[in-house]
Amino acid sequence: MSRSASAGRIVVGYTATKAGRDAVAFASRLGAASGAALHLVLVLPAQKPGIVPPDAGYERLLREQAAGWLREGAAEVPEGVSHRAHVRYGESVAAGLIDTADELGASLIVVGAADGGNRGRHRLGTTTTELVHSSDVPVALVPRGARRVPVETGITRLTAAVGEREGTELLVEATIRLAAATAAPVRLLSLVALDLPAGLDTGAIRTVGQNHAQEVLDEVRSALPSDAEVTAVVAAGDGIEDAVSHLEWEAGEVVIVGSSRLAQPRRLFLGSTAARMLRVVTAPMIVVPRTRSDREGASA
């Protein structure tokens, strides 16, 4: 199976900003629900070859400042959630986070929204864009204002957006694993009806969507405890944004989507469906690679 957020370690991309606090807040709720340990990581720029080394005193001061920021971030983690803080160096923040996830055998990278977004909305910046194009670890994109959701809210429901394209099997496996770890109810959102050619009979579209939803529902139910709450809905509307905007979303919801079929093997690539969902969904979104990682099986 692919590594999912239910394994033992979560890397949190931390910055001394509201986005950093949002990432810590969501990761804390996920850690409290699943028992995963948090690793708050602040990435400093690595020295490039040929560049004159900076003054040692300045370098020490910068590292001490970073450590101080991390202490502030760690103070936001609630009691009972295991956590550690790390100052790392990388060619970019995204590269540093991926390298750290590799080193720790982490199952998830969590990052906040870029500056400039509205509360409750997603906004991809340089780091998040690089992550969703290069990470072989699932990435959780956290909307602005997630820090305002109390940790006691927990993870109230998982909504997995499933179709019939390559990678769906791993998306379903990741959903099952996270559901088992958090004991959260699962809502399966079938996207098949939106992928059908235009002009088909409405009744035929409805039948295909319902059949697909039932198939995935049966698969997930068979893999979870008998008392697990699992439901399925069929996306209906004039496109994914319209369909998603008409669904009910909870404060503790988490959305799980697959990466594009055009992505390189074992890499994320935010496809058109996920990108459209980001425009209207106010919940954190976990993007799952479409193929299994070479490092599959790493755990706490």
From TrEMBL:
Short name of one Pfam family: Usp
Coiled coil ranges: none
Residue intervals of the UspA domain: 9-143, 157-289
Matching InterPro entries: Rossmann-like_a/b/a_fold, UspA
UniProt record similarity statement: Belongs to the universal stress protein A family.
Protein name: Nucleotide-binding universal stress UspA family protein
